[in-house]
């Protein structure tokens, strides 16, 4: 789950707006709700991607300094 600061940084919105978005209570017109939904969808896709698939696509020659390799243990 993203923090309010992370949502603010990515979407360029205020902390109160990020809080409303996160809680599904943002009711102003504009595309901010759509951008938040797109961000959440992208985050979900990232979580669903198997780590092996990420490694197959990686251009590195070795896993040194790779966060995915660190997470895999």
UniProtKB/TrEMBL annotation:
Superkingdom as given in the UniProt entry: Bacteria
Protein name: Uncharacterized protein
Species of the source: Alkalidesulfovibrio alkalitolerans DSM 16529
């Amino acid at each position: 789950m993203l923090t309010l600061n992370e949502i603010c940084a990515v979407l360029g919105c205020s902390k109160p707006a990020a809080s409303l978005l996160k809680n599904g209570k943002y009711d102003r017109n504009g595309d901010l709700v759509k951008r938040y939904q797109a961000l959440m969808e992208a985050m979900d896709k990232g979580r669903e991607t198997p780590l092996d698939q990420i490694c197959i696509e990686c251009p590195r020659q070795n896993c040194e300094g790779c966060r995915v390799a660190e997470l895999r243990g």
